Amino acid sequence: MIVVSDYILYTSEMKQIVTDPLIIWLLKLLIPAYDFVLETSKHPKLLKERSFIFQIYYRYIPLTFFFTWLFSLAPTEIDSFLYLILMLLGSISIYAQANKADKYKSTLYYMIILYFGFLGIRAFVGHSFMADYVANYIGWQSGSPFQLELAFYHLGLALASLTYIWNQTKELALGLIISKSVFLFGAMGIHIYEVIVSSNFSQGNIGFGIIFGDLLLPLLMIYLYRMSYHQKRFS
User: Fold this and answer.
1) Is 235 inside a domain boundary?
2) What is the per-residue pLDDT across 113-138, written as a single tens digit (0 to 9) for each?
């Protein structure tokens, strides 16, 4: 599932599903970043309104954290898999609703804001205020100060990613994607090493969410950037 083909995205059945009013309502409710990107893509002037900007910090980010946490409470065999599917469905929905000239850029915008920005702040909270819980979930030893350093990395990149809301240039997108991809590919290598050396098969070390987040996600982001760049859809 590295790339969802244009054919699949443009089949009438898929487009009908992801643009169905009920599905859009559900995505707006459960994926706050989807709602944010959809609104700002359709109405760019909202980003100049102070009251709307404040909603990023007191509404969209907290709700994104809440719902990802809520879905993670599901049984282990389901875990947060369902929420991940919803987030990916959101990307397909954004793609289907965007203008033909901006489909890749709009999808890239959604992915950067959601995965790098909103969920980056969630990762900061997890590795700082919930460090022991996250360490146990991954299969690490708790109490390491290096985990707090990791938390601040996530916070820094998340805040940088949120600046993409107002500065959607190919240079910023490329810098964010390179920084995050190097980290994620490296993390994936460490997870595999832990499986081989320490037999760490915990859900937080080598589960589907890790495989998608550390391996498939950066490949998808690189693809979206490449398509946006070559189609000259950046300002």
Assistant:
1) no
2) 999 999 999 999 999 999 998 888 88
